[in-house]
Amino acid sequence: MKLTLLFALFVLALTFVSFTAHAEVVNIGISTVGLYELPTEISKRRGFYQEEGLEVRKIAVRSPLHVPALLAGELDYSTVTGLILSASVQGMPLKSVMGWFDKPLHMLIARPNIKRLTDLKDKRVAVSGFGSIPHVMLREALAGAGMNPDKDITVLALGGSGDRLAALISGIVDATPLDIAYIQRTEKLGYNNLLYLGDVVNLRLGGLAASNDKIQRNPEQITRVIRATLKGVRFMKTNKPETLAIMRDYLKISGDYVEKIYLFALKSLNEDGLVAKSSLDNEIRLAREQLKVKEEVAESKVAEWKFIKDILAKR
What we know:
2 domains, D-Maltodextrin-Binding Protein, domain 2, 3-stranded parallel sheet, about 50% helix
């Protein structure tokens, strides 16, 4: 009996080692750990990528480097989709292939002496990269308050939310839009929540983007990556207790904050892995304005939805 059990365990171990050895390595770029890319972390922890024969490696890369990294094949996918869209509008061979949040999940955080948006006049504000979603959101918020985003503030491109928070703490900048997963830390530090940016602009957040070369050469991998990630998106909605546990561990959120942040996320979540047309149209419009692109930009220039639509059609 013992020998039979030992043999079964030996075979199981060999099967696991064989599977791991043959798993296809996929590099997914993030700018920093955050709520915006949580579905990928859920899919890793729940084994959804492994079920597709994938070994997903998440790599933190400064936001401006995602475009060249995708083009060079150093990253297979990027979750910094706002910056990728801006590059696509400029003619770079990159496209979004999946989405999951239809509204931004960012809070504009400021130093204690800054109480209103207009107090940001002549101040320094950090964004992840020029043309990124945080930058676009900031511009929209300032314009809505009657300010000139090109003249009234100094914008610094400093990377992901973690880098921007460090810049705020060190005094390099006076304010920055941060992933709402950071509000527990910023409130304890005494910083002000100036504005929840999801209330002022419809823009998607997160998702997956890939190079046109990847789309043409390896469509089968893209399908598997999206299918696994979609399971993470839907798990987030249907398995609240386990999702909260992952958020506590991965995002380092405790107490009542984790439930508060989870509810913010659910309001924005697109469980079909797509992007609301209004959000994408708005993102394209704002990118054209910022980049001073006069010609119309078709959705097909910045996105390829055939993979996610095929997956949805088979469910």
